[in-house]
Amino acid sequence: MSQLMTLALFLLAFAAILGPLVALHEWGHYIVARLCGVKVLTYSIGFGPKLASWTSKKTGTDYRISALPLGGYVKMLDEREGEVAEEEKHLAFNNQHPLKKIAIVAAGPLMNFIIAIALFWVLFLVPSEQLNTRIGSVLPQTPAATVNLPKGDKIVAVDGHNVQTWEEINYRLADRMGETGTVSLALQKVAASPEGLEGSANDSTSEKSSSVYAQANEVEVPIDNFMQGTQSGKDTLTSLGVLPWQPQIEPVIGQLSEDGAAIRQGMKVGDKIVAINNEPVEDWLVVTRIIRDNPETLLNFTVLRENEQGESREVQLQIMPQGKKGSAGQQYGQIGAGIAPIEIVVPDDYKTMVSYDPITAIGKAFAKTGQLATMTLNSMGKMITGKVGLDNLSGPITIAVISKQSFEISWEQVLANAGIISLSLAVLNLLPIPVLDGGHLLYYLIELIRGRPVSERMQIIGFNLGFLFLLGFMILAITNDFSRYF
Which CATH class is domain 255-338? Predict the structure, then answer.
C-alpha cells in the first residue's frame, strides 16, 4: 500500500470518528441556543476557510464545513462582536440571563457525555465470551512476583472496587499511573467443583466454568513510580506483572521474514529456542516478550536444530531485535520470526460469558463514564504535579492512528474508541480555561453570582492567556505524536 493511500486511510478514519463527535457537540450548543431564543449566525464543523456551506432561508443560519477538522463552532448574534439591529437585540447572546448562557455553553460537553454513555450502553448490551479474571501467569521481576501472586486465583477487586473483566482491571490499574505505594488486589481461590456443577454467576455475568470460589483475601502489591521510568511504554498488566490465561506454545520457528534479523543471523524454520542469554525458555509467549522488551539489544539465542538424520544439536545465534514503534508510539523489538499456525482452545475454567440486560447495561455505562472521566482528570492532575510525564499527552495524530486501528479490528472497537474520545472532549472542554467551554462557564457563573458580567477587558485578557495555554498544549501534544510515530 502506498504511503499516500495509507495517509488517506488515516484521515478518513480520523474524520469518521471525530467528525460526528464534533458535529454533535456543536449541535448541543446550537439546539439549546435556539430553544433559549438566541439567533444562531453560523454552525460550522471545523475551523478556518469554508469548504462548503448552506444558508437556511428560514433562520438565516449559515451551515458550513470548514478546512481544519480539529473542532467546530457555533457563532451567535452578539453585540460584543458587531452591531445588532434594535429589533433583534432580544435575540443576542450577550443579552440573555446568565442561566441561559450557562445552559447554552454546557450543552456541548453534555452532548459528548450523552454520546459516551449511549455508546458504552450499546457495547454492554452485546454478549461476549471473554477470559475471566483468573491469573494465568505472573511475570518474573515484577511487583506481582515480589508477593508471589498465585497462578489460577481470580481477581475480584482492585483497590476496593469490584471487577468482572480484564478491561475493568486495566482501568483501575491505569488510575494508579505514576504512583508509589501498594495496589490492593482481592483474590479468590478457585477449586474444581463436583462434576456437573455449574460455575458461579452474578446479576450481570454468567461464567462457563466448573469452579467454585472461596472467600476473597486481600493482597497488597507494592508499586514504585507505576508505569513510569523503566516501565514506561508498557501496558498496565505487564507493568504490574500479572497476565490473563495464555496458551502454552512450544517456541519452534515455523516461519521467517525475508528481511528480518532472525534469518539474516542464521535462524532456520524448525529451530527450537531453548534459551535466551543463557536463561531457559519453554514458551513462545515468553520468547516474544523478551524480544519485544529488548529493541536494538544484542541477544544470545540457544536453539536446538535437527540434521537430516534427525539428530539434534545446540546452535548459538546472536540476534539484535529491530526497533519498531507500536500503536501507542512505544518502541518494541522484532526479529521477523513466528510459529506455525495452531488452533488455540481456551479451557472452560478460564472463560466467562459477559451479558447485561438493558437496565443493568445503562447503569454500567454511567459507571464507566464516571470512572473514565475521573481517571482523565486524575491523569491531568498527575501531569501538573509531575507524577506522570508530559510525554503521555496525545494529539490528533494519535487519534488518527487509534481510529484507523479500531476500524481494522471490529465495529465494537470503533464504538469503544468513539466513546472514549467523546468523553475526553467533554472533560477537556469543561476545564476552566478561557477559550474552552469551561472558561466561559466560569465567567457566567461569576455573572450569576455578582449580578453583572465580567468586564470585557478581563474577558479579553483571559481569552488571550487561555489561547496561549491551549496553543502550547497542542504544540506539546503534536510534538509527542511525532516522537511516537516518526
Answer: mainly beta
